[in-house]
Write a structure and sequence with these properties.
single chain; 352 residues; alpha/beta; Quinone Oxidoreductase, Chain A, domain 1; Rossmann fold; 7-stranded mixed sheet; 6-stranded parallel sheet; 10 helices; 19 strands; binds beta-D-glucopyranose; GroES-like_sf; metal ion binding
Amino acid sequence: MRALTVIPHQPGSLQVQEVEDPVVGLNELLVEGISLGICGTDREIASGLYGWAPPGKQQLILGHESLGRVKAAPKDSGFAEGDIIVGIVRRPDPVPCGACARGEFDMCRNGLYVERGIKEVDGYGSTGWTVLADYAVKLDPSLGEVGVLMEPTTVVAKAWDQIDNIDKRAWFDPTRVLVTGAGPIGLLAAMIGKLKGLDVHVLDRATSGVKPRLVEELGATYHTGSVADAAKAVNPDIVIEATGAPAVVVQAMQLDIPCEIVCLTGVSSPGSSSPVDVGALNRNMVLGNGVVFGSVNANRHHYEQAAAALAKADKKWLSGLITRRLPLSRALEAFDITVPHDDIKVVIDLQK
Ligand code: BGC
C-alpha cells in the first residue's frame, strides 16, 4: 500500500512510498483510508522537531486526523463493512497511570502514552490501516467529507469540557468568549461556542480572505489587532488561545479580567522569551481568581461530544474549513510553507 512516511527528527525525510500492507490483529478493523487532515503537529514532525518512530523502526507513518471506511470487522465488534469511522489518536500508557486506567488517557500522568502518527505507533496516513475496534468511532455517513474534521473537533470539545468543569468551581455564567487564532482549532472552538449560545469573538491577524468570512458566516465577530484591545472591546469571560504564538499567549495570560478562564490549546516551539511582569501577572490572577490552563488531545467521551457538535453544525460552513484537497501523490505540497496559501485545513485524498 502507499503511505506518507517520515523519519522523525530527520528534516526532509517526508515521502510517499510503498510500504507493507497492515496485518489485521485481534479485535482490529481493517480500514480503507478515505482522507487525512494535516495540522501543525504533522508539519512539526515533518520539519524534524517532534515525533517518535515505533520501537525498533526508523520510520513513522504520519497522520492522526483520520477518516476511513471499514473493509472488514470482527463479529460482535459493533462495526460492519462500509461503516465510516475515525480512529482515536492516543492509547493509554502501559502502567497504567490512574487517569489512563480510567479511560482518561488524554490526561496521562506519566507521559508513557503513545499516539497514532505522532508517538511510537504508525498513523492513519496510508491507503489502508487497522485500528482496534475499541479505538474506532463510527460517524454519521451524512457528514461526508467533513468527517475528517472530527479529530480537531475532539481537541476543542475536550478544551470546552475542561472549561465547563472549571466553571463549576463557583457561580459563573459565561456569556462572551474570545478565541485567538482563526485556524482550524480556533474556528472549531468558536463553532462550539456558538452551539453553546455564547457571544463569540475571534481575533486573528488576517485582515481579509477566508478567515473573516468564515467568522462572519458563523455569526461571530471578527477582530484584528492586539489581544488587549480585543479583550477591552469584548470583556470575555473565557479566552481560548489557539495560535500558540508566544506573543499572543503572553498577552492572553496577562489580561486582567476577574474570574476569567484562559485555555491554551496552541503548541508552541520552545526558545522564545519575552519580558513579563510576573508580579503583575500573579497579582491579577490571585486577586481575580484567574485560571490559565493547557489542554491537549481527547478521550472517547470527547469524541462523542465532537460527533454531537458536528451533527448540529452547518455542514456547508464546515466544508468551507477545508480549503485545499490534494491527492496522496502530492501530499508533500501540504507541508510546503514557502508557498503562501490562504489555507484553513488541507486534506489529503488517500485513494488518489
Ligand atoms: C493532536 C493531539 C496530540 C497532540 C500532541 C495534536 O496535534 O491533535 O491528539 O495529543 O498533537 O502530540
